[in-house]
Amino acid sequence: MLLVDTNIILELMLQQEKSIECEKFLNSVATGDIEATITRFSLHAIEAIIKNPEHTSAFLHNVNSSIGLRVYDTDTSDEIAIALLMKEIKLDFDDTLQFYVAKKIGAEGIVSFDRDFDKVDINRLVPGQV
Fold first, then answer.
1. How far apart are CA 32 and CA 12, in angstroms?
2. With helix as H, strand as E and coil as C, how does 70-98 read?
3. Which CATH superfamily, name and number, covers 2-129?
4. Cα 74 to Cα 52: distance, rounded to the nearest angstrom
5. What are the residue boundaries of the structural domains of the chain, listed by start?
């Protein structure tokens, strides 16, 4: 089980430099070859960035139809724990949330281009490593 960070999906959706690498990884998740989790927080961040209703709808349809993808919802108790953890691990709220959820679900690592995860005790993988 892996946790997918927001930037992996945005890299693909915005057709950035590493979009092909992200597409291969996310296709493996979609077919169930790889089991992964994304946070509801990431979904909302992506929705806010996309803005286009048709693209947002297509994105959410892809999330729903991805066999290997689960969505993790944090609750207020989780978010209090995340806020307290921020000081300890010295990451911002969204990175701490990703780290917290990855630890909570027992993820093997976080798939992300964000090098801030290299500062904490979890494996950071880029899509090509998976």
1. 19
2. EEECCCHHHHHHHHHHHHHHCCCHHHHHH
3. 5'-nuclease (3.40.50.1010)
4. 26
5. 2-129
Give the residue from 115, 108, 38 showing the smallest Cα distance to 72: 38
Residue 69 CB neighbours (<10 A): 19
- Could you read off the pLDDT of 14-68 as tens digits, one per residue? 999 999 999 999 999 999 999 999 999 999 999 999 989 999 999 999 999 999 9
Assess contact for 31 and 68: CB atoms under 8 A: yes
First to last CA, the chain: 11
Lookup: tokens for 25? 């990884």
Enumerate the β-bridge partners of residue 116. Answer: none
Please state, as a whole number, how many other Cβ atoms lie within 10 Å of the Cβ of residue 84: 10
